[in-house]
Amino acid sequence: MRICFAPILAMTLLAAGCGTVAQQPAAAPVVTEDSFRAHLAQLASDEFEGRKPTTRGEERTIAYLSENFEHLGLKPANGTSYLQDVPLVELTAASDASLEFDGGKSGRKALRYGDDMVIWTKRVVQQSGIADSPLVFVGYGIVAPEYGWNDYQGIDMRGKTAVILINDPGFATSDPKLFNGRAMTYYGRWVYKYEEAARQGAAAAIIIHDTEPAAYPWQTVVTSWTGPQLDMQSADGNAGRVAVEGWIQKPIASALFAEAGLDLDQAMLAARTKGFRPTPLAGLTASAQLRNAIRRANSHNVAAILPGRSRPNEYIMYMAHWDHLGRMLGGQPDTIFNGAIDNATGTAGLLAIAEALAAAGAQERSIMFVSVTAEESGLLGSAYYAANPLVPLRDTVAVFNMDAMHFGGRTRDVTVVGYGASELDDYLKRAAVRQDRIVEPEPTPEKGFYYRSDHFNMAKKGVPALYIKLGIDDREHGRDWGREQLEKFTATCYHQTCDNYSPDVRLDGSTEDLNLLLSIGREIANDGQYPNWRAGNEFRAIRDRSRAED
Question: Please, which residues have CB within 8 angstroms of residue 378's CB and are 6 or more apart in sequence?
């Protein structure tokens, strides 16, 4: 199947020489709003069916990306192919999944799937469950020796169900000396909590949903964790994971604690204190059963290279995830999760930058464009790439991640997720000055965005990464208005079917951000420097070791 590439691309190619990369650099390249908008409108259209991996939506998406890269004259990054296979397994829990609590004053309590709880298993099995598993409140479920913190201290979790708070103690107290204060650490992420519960030998792990520390409402939990769920294929079929993972609503947890003669609010206060000890819930037990449909399939990362002139074996990488949630199960009027902001914007931006650089011609270093799969399922595509890189990570000079570039007008500021982490901030500041803008830290570090997008997997391998967002201080409406718009999207349309594109959305703000990233990438591609993480950053030693290797 072939998909026609955006009309703006045809004009770009004619100017660039009919799809061949020019050998001499032209004037400074510029991302145009027309180019960005054309790709965005296509990727966020119903034709792409929500871009869910391993579906027809993926077929259309990867064809669109590959054909655009080919027409730009970019080199395939994987031998003769633009595609990198990413082996996935899809597990779909039946809607009759059950979770019950027993042993309290009111007897057995069955929770409603979707309304009260959502459960699943990462184990690649047709059936999974627990029976009469004792409940233990383990606070934030964190074991962090560097903070002197162990929420599992003194308890054997074998056969038991861990009941866990979302985020971390620093968020709850706002104490800058506790973890990272309001800014979430990796210990606050749900993925860490399930993994730690498995390391502790728990039978099941249930997180209590609380909207503010989770950073999204209960409906986002439902849309994100029901229906088909993707994970990496593994040799043991994820046998080391707990048998049941899930979320419960906070009011349900409050009633559950009351059944055990405990007060949830008081228990949450105790969990913020160093020296917290896990608390069994007075004889309460959990039982759960679920059935899985299992499907194995390959998804794909899509990658292309603009070869460099004098240093072709050193790479500047632009990265964006192409996937979203696909279709909603059920008879709703709008059943497609088009994911316009998340992340048709980043993918469209990737193509728009590729167009501008291809038209400008080769830089000194190579430029790489990577669109990864299955970000929405736990950063799977970027994790696979980081473990199986198409070019050496030690020679990947910098990564620029584009994820959820919000609609709106130009701003006086640009936001950095993970501000102060690397020397890439210095390049950004210089470029921002040319746009009469300032660089500021993200306004909501407590939401843990640094750990929720694909640059994180590259950072863990030591590659310096920059992740920016449209600023808050709107030039026309001010800072309060900008913050209100961001909060409105998160509360109403994040991972919902209303994340749509329309021709009247403003893109001048995001276009300006794309030109920042274009300018920075081009500068580093030509200056010969190797930006590093700041001294003291957790990724600095990894980078230094990789660069020291022969």
Answer: 191, 231
Peptide bond into 343 cis (omega under 30): yes
Count CA atoms within 13 Å of residue 489 on its CB side. 16
Burial class (CB within 10 angstroms; exposed 0-12, middle 13-18, buried 19+) of 480: exposed
- CB within 8 Å of 367: residues ≥ 6 apart: 305, 306, 308, 315, 316, 317, 318, 357, 521, 525
Each residue's pLDDT tens digit, 157-212: 999 999 999 999 999 998 988 998 888 888 999 999 999 999 999 999 999 999 99
Q: From CA 548, how far away is CA 550, in angstroms rounded?
A: 7
Identify whether the C-beta of residue 316 lies closer than 8 Å to the C-beta of residue 398: yes
What is the average per-residue pLDDT within 357-386?
A: 96
How far is residue 365's CA from residue 310's CA, in Å, rounded to a whole number?
A: 7
Count of alpha carbons within 13 angstroms of residue 288, beta-carbon side: 37
Beta-strand (E) ranges in 169-218? 204-209
Q: Are residues 100 and 287 in contact, defined by beta-carbon separation less than 8 angstroms?
A: yes
Asked if 121 and 290 touch (Cβ cutoff 8 Å), the reply is: yes
Query: What is the distance between the alpha carbons of residues 105 and 504, in angstroms, rounded to a whole number?
Result: 57
- Model confidence over 508-524: pLDDT tens digits? 999 999 999 999 999 99
Give the separation between CA 46 and CA 43, rounded to whole angstroms. 8
Report the C-alpha gap between 128 and 172 in whole angstroms. Answer: 34
Amino acid identity of 370? V
DSSP state of 78: B
Q: By C-alpha distance, which of 330, 371, 365 is closest to 347? A: 371
Distance CA 148, CA 179 (A): 10
Burial class (CB in 10 A: 0-12, 13-18, 19+), 216: middle
Please give the backbone phi and psi of residue 342, each rounded to the nearest 5 degrees, phi first: -115, 90
The amino acid present at 384, given as its one-letter code, is Y
Burial 148-186 (b: 16+ CB within 10 A, else e): ebbbbeebebeebbbbbbbbbbbbbbeeeebbbbbbbbb
